[in-house]
Write a structure and sequence with these properties.
It contains seven helices and eight strands, in the order αββαββαααββαββα. By secondary structure, it is of the alpha+beta class.
């Protein structure tokens, strides 16, 4: 049985699920997180050190068509084995994947960290204030929709297909109440816009 989740550990699990990967190659056990926000990368590194005591990591900074991204990689068998206690895979393309009961039945402050990581990694906000986020997993996107309702944030789901397969989109209703909730709960506090004419600006500015 997994121990009680801390906010740091649930952030690690969530970021690896949305914008990261956990895998084994040969004798190496890898956990990797990619994001265009240095603030989120720094937070992830700090959380890993606090939860697992790991200080050594590899940081890669890349650029493609003016878009800068950071990729941080940790190698630890102990961390790898611990993470798999919570999820059997960190691929949201797996149709059977669901958030574990320990997260689903957790306190609101833990569920809020899952929501924050989701929007920080997968979300977007238009200059007109439209909030949307995409995910491959049908099960998890519905679980996340329930989490949003706990905080009185309401939206709708739709589905579309592209070359990578079926994807689910959660769009929060565009109104002052939802935008205020996002601001007050600091849901976009550390994330940055990854493309477009407002590239690299903080999403929380909108």
């Amino acid at each position: 049985q997994c121990e009680k989740l801390s906010q740091e550990k649930v952030r690690i699990i969530s970021h690896l699920l949305y914008d990261g990967t956990v895998f084994k190659t040969g004798y190496h056990h890898i956990a990797r997180y990619i994001n265009c926000s240095k603030e989120l990368i720094d937070q992830f590194v700090s959380d890993i050190e606090k939860v697992y005591g790991i200080k050594r990591y590899n940081l890669f900074i890349g650029e493609n068509k003016g878009k800068i991204h950071y990729k941080v990689t940790f190698t630890s068998k102990e961390m790898y084995n611990d993470l798999l206690k919570y999820l059997p895979t960190f691929s949201t393309s797996n149709v059977k994947l669901k958030l574990p009961k320990i997260i689903v039945n957790s306190k609101p402050k833990i569920q809020l960290e899952v929501i924050r990581a989701f929007w920080e990694d997968e979300g977007s906000i238009s200059y007109k204030g439209r909030l949307c986020a995409d995910l491959k997993s049908k099960n998890i996107i519905y679980q996340l929709l329930d989490f949003h309702k706990i905080f009185n944030i309401y939206g709708k789901l739709c589905c579309y297909k592209d070359k990578t397969g079926r994807t689910y989109k959660l769009c929060v209703h565009k109104n002052k109440e939802n935008l205020t909730k996002f601001y007050d709960l600091k849901i976009f506090h550390k994330s940055r816009v990854s493309k477009g004419y407002i590239l690299a600006r903080k999403r929380s500015m909108f």
